[in-house]
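Troubleshooting: if your tokenizer reports a length mismatch, compare against these two reference records.
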Amino acid sequence: MKIAIYSRVLHKSDLAEIQELFNCIFKYKAEPIVFEEYYILLKNIIQFKGKVATFSSHSDIKGVADCMISVGGDGTLLDTITYIRNSGIPIVGINVGRLGFLANTGRDDIEATVKAITNKAYTIDYRTLIHVDSNMPIFGEVNYGLNEFSIHKKDSSSMITIHTYINGELLNSYWADGLIIATPTGSTGYNLSCGGPIIFPSSENFVITPIAPHNLNVRPIIVSDQSILSFEIEGRNESFLCTLDSRYEAIDNSYQLAVRKENFKVGLLRINDINFLETLRTKLMWGADKRN
């Protein structure tokens, strides 16, 4: 079995867990394929008890890796989408970051996780991706994300107007700081912090959430993910910002943007009985009574 390992940074406080991860990979007779830039950070610090391969692109692991382990927080796991793409490689996140809602494997569960992967004793939860289309190139070859697509004002205190259409029919002209279109997976992220609802991962929906809208009667709305959402942007400033998960690009009002459901899904690997509801309660303190 070959396990791809991805991370962005290396903190000294995480060295013990990273060493344990590689020890367990070799213990259970798996072969690590490490993101090249991460391997450069590790090679003089971590002791490798076997052969280590590296990867730097999607093509290096497609058809080769059996799964991907993300070492970090939720942002690190979101980055793996640019390498996984449509390869079908499932992802599991070991949380050495902060909240770890998606990367929900704790520091104490590293060996159990590697053992479960090598024994194929896991469940795969398939998650919807959001795809961005534009009349001009945007986000390169990976114009899709797991959490959300958003449009923001840029370099101006003035609000922007985002004319939003569902299948070509006007939904609303949002006068706001921006607009979020989140998948069910992304509903617990930026969308939630802006007052949007939580959607179950299996729901076939998107949620449209305005960011600081001028009209207080404008609220988030849930729409079918079979819809095509398109946007026209106006503002005093001709430059705007759009994001796709943790990636961003500057655009102007000549861009015609649309989002839809991607035609493939990504698999998040789960190695224990912790489901979505349990994660809500433990990570977001859902329904917690502080009086006890």
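Reference record two:
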Amino acid sequence: MPRRNQGPRLRWLQKRRCFYINWTERGRSRERSTGTADREQAEVIFAEWLQRRGRRRGPSDPSAALVTDVLNDYLQERGPKIAAPGRIAYAVLSLTDFFEGNTIADVTPQTCGRYVEKRERSQGTVRRELGVLRAAINYAHRCGRITRPVAVELPERPAPRDRWLSRKEAASLIRAARTRQARLYMPLFILLGLYTGRRKEAILSLRWPQVDLDAGLIDFEIAGRQRTKKKRGKVPIPARLLPHLRRARKRGTDLGYVLHLNGERIGDIKKGFAAACERANIKGVCPHTLKHTAITWCMRSGTDPWQAAGFFATSVETLLRVYGHHHPDYMREVAQRIGKRPQNVRVIS
């Protein structure tokens, strides 16, 4: 016998240290954060929510729609459908703390600027979080919940990181990664990053059915995975990587992960990678640096940008904008032409 619907109620969630409104809608359990740990304040927000819920459904003016409501709707309805729901949830928690009690109309360049100052995080992190707020507001407008969208001012895009590993640093890092616990997967992770230029998640989620050792190909795409701007693609296996994969295949299973610990998928490699960097005395490096290193080495060797863009599953425009200055022919033609006498021009002495 199904449980009786008890209607909307206020509930304390210990793991989030906050009061939540819980209710059932069309057979599905829903929840919405009040954005506060104070019981009296949560009850006031709950009462206002009940009052708005009883009104006629329809688009609201931005001055009548709370930022916390829009963020919660976006997290619950769009969160499960995107590639990185955890990152969106983390951004929503930070935005909720700051914009608690504010309406969409209160989102101005001034309030966005104050958010940047109060957040005290890197420019890239704050820009990404405000991007979630912008997406949530636009989503509410598309769904007919607010009458018009409101502009969200983002901080300037940070300059691309130019930290990459030299050949000597890469060799030192691989040697430092050969510890007792991580000796099987950490060096292989570094080699995969250096020779394929793929992101951490693409490498950690790689299974043996995606690796064709006979044809010499790796397909980093996963069937059913939602396509995003961060493409994965299919790459030929570089000759220096192939013997390492052959040895790893003997330790693996037909359907298992290429990188594993006792057969289980490795959740994250950040701490182990940082420990290897510390042992190798290498600073300013993270797993994503391996991707930067692979592309930088490729460009410095004089590889055609169009072919490099195809191998690393990125656009030529992005490749030239971020890594173009590493190419040996970068602006060389311009430098050679500066001061060169034009043809068919008579010089009058």
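Descriptive notes for reference record two:
- The longest helix spans residues 123-142.
- The chain has two domains: 9-142, 167-287.
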